[in-house]
Design a protein that fits this description.
Substrate binds at residues 15, 47, 67, 77-78, 163, 197, 215-216, 225-226. This is Diaminopimelate epimerase. Homodimer. The structure is a single chain. The protein is of the alpha+beta class and 304 residues long. It folds into two domains: 5-118 and 275-300, Diaminopimelate Epimerase, Chain A, domain 1 (Roll); 144-267, Diaminopimelate Epimerase, Chain A, domain 1. The protein is 15% helix and 36% strand. It contains four helices and 20 strands. It has an 18-stranded mixed sheet that branches. Strand 19 (276-283) and strand 20 form a beta hairpin. The protein binds the ligand N[C@@H](CCC[C@H](N)C(=O)O)C(=O)O. The site of the ligand N[C@@H](CCC[C@H](N)C(=O)O)C(=O)O has 19 residues, from helix 2 and helix 4. Ligand LBFN2T5F binds next to helix 2 and helix 4.
Length: 304
């Protein structure tokens, strides 16, 4: 299949997202296109959220998620909020059900413009995260970085929320740590056969915390929604916080927040936060060639 498709450059509290409209087509955004788009300063992104026709009854769309290295991801919380905002603007609807390779996600846009995504149930079993070694208790595993007798980061909580996460507890602001150096080492550690997203988390009260994430397949990002969910669940699971937290993403512009609620009644994790449209254009999903839409000056940022 050939031809250009519409896309929107968006962000979820800084997480750089391209929402690509692949509905009505049978092809996919290729890894080569993703790498080309990631290499251009204008379209640089953390994740592509490619909206496809639904595959399952009762769903609105199938979402294919690509990282900026061309690899696939099972979950992207910030990107899902961007998809909801784009589809809500197009259809006037408020509630959506999506399918990804990791399962079904429900999401809703609220009257104040914030968006909640039900990210599903956390998975703690070592072989489902997955880890390469058996751990009965994944709330604190043996893994450390730095000198053996004075590790800089150690004993992370690990889990999956559609993608694998390791949460390292820190006692200073996460921006104080050299995540650019430790992130790739930990992402690719033999403990994680499918690699992992690496998050530094500082708990500041029983209902507040601060995070910063090195993303699997995307590197240092300004924000990661599934990591925020994993950090909040891990904090509650280990008794550091309650089940609902206001989470500040240290690296996001203006240190924006997400509300994470690990619901007692059904074990689902619900993330609420903002999404922002930046500009729109058309791209070739085979090669990544793109063109920005012309915007008349008087239309400004409202033209989406
Ligand atoms: N930014 C995303 C998560 C992206 C997926 C990740 N890099 C992976 O490969 O697991 C989010 O907001 O959740």
């Amino acid at each position: 299949m050939t031809g250009m498709v519409e896309f929107a450059k968006m962000n979820g509290i800084g997480n750089k997202i391209l929402v690509v409209d692949m509905r009505g087509r049978t092809d996919r955004v290729t890894p080569e296109a993703a790498i080309a788009l990631a290499g251009d300063a204008e379209t640089r992104f953390d994740q592509i959220m490619a909206i496809h026709d639904p595959k399952a009854h009762g769903t609105d769309a199938y979402i294919d998620i690509l990282n900026n290295d061309g690899s696939k991801a099972g979950a992207c919380g910030n990107g899902t909020r961007c998809v909801v905002q784009a589809l809500a603007a197009e259809t006037g609807r408020k509630a959506f059900t999506f399918q990804t390779v990791a399962g079904i996600l429900n999401a809703v846009e609220h009257d104040d413009g914030s968006i909640s995504v039900d990210m599903g149930k956390p998975e703690f079993r070592w072989d489902r995260i997955p880890l390469s070694e058996e751990f009965h208790d994944t709330s604190k595993i043996e893994l450390q970085i730095g000198p053996i007798d004075a590790p800089i980061l150690h004993s992370p909580a690990v889990m999956s929320i559609g993608n694998p996460h390791a949460i390292f507890w820190v006692d200073r602001d996460p921006m104080d740590y050299d995540l650019e150096r430790f992130g790739p080492l930990l992402e690719n550690h033999p403990m994680f056969p499918e690699k992992a997203n690496i998050t530094l988390a500082q708990v500041t009260s029983p209902s507040t915390m601060i995070t910063r994430t090195w993303e699997r397949g995307a590197g240092l990002t300004l924000a990661c929604g599934s990591a925020a969910c994993a950090a909040a669940v891990s904090a509650a699971r280990t008794g550091r916080t309650g089940r609902k937290v206001e989470l500040t993403v240290a690296s996001s512009p203006g240190r924006q927040t997400l509300t994470i609620d690990w619901r007692e009644r059904d074990n689902h994790v619900v993330m609420t936060g903002a999404a922002e449209w930046e500009w729109s254009g058309r791209l070739d999903p085979l090669t990544g060639a793109f063109a920005r839409d012309e915007v008349a000056p008087q239309d400004g940022a409202a033209a989406h």
